[in-house]
Amino acid sequence: MRDWDSEFADIAGKPPTRFYPGSTRRISRRPVRSQLHSPTGELTRHDHPDRWDSKPQVKPFAGGYREFFGIGDLAKALRRDAVTMRKWEATGVIPKATYVISGKTANGNRRLYTRDQIEAIVRIAEEEGLFDGDPRGIRLSDTRFTERVKEAFEQLRHKEAA
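RESULT FIELD:
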C-alpha cells in the first residue's frame, strides 16, 4: 500500500506527517520544554534518555530560567525508588526539598531539586559507600551521609543567596 502522505510531503518538500501507531493522533514535532532555548541561548538536549538528568523541568527563576528535577529523578540518580526518597525525607535522612510547587493533581505538591543538589547527594552517597553491594545491607546510621547532605544543602543555599 502506498503512503500518500509521505509522497505528497516529498513533492511539497516538507517532512511527512507521522501518526502514533494505530491512531489518528499526529506526533508533535514541537520541541518539549526541556529542549527550548536555555538562558545561554543554546538548545539543551541530553544524549542518554535513561540518565536521571535526561528530562529537566525548566522553570522561570529569579529573572531567568533554571533546571529542576523531581523526586523520581533523585531516586534514579541514587538507584532507589521514589518511595524510598519520600521516606528518607520524612524521617530526616535527606533534607526537605528546597523548592516545592503546588501539584495539579490530588497527589499533592511536587518536590523539586536543582542539579547541584542532586549531584551533591550522589557524590556523598558514592563517598559513603551507598552504591557498594546490596542496598538493603547498608545501614545509613553507620555513615555520615545525613550530616554531609545537610551540610551540602546549607552550603548550596548560602551560595545561591550570595
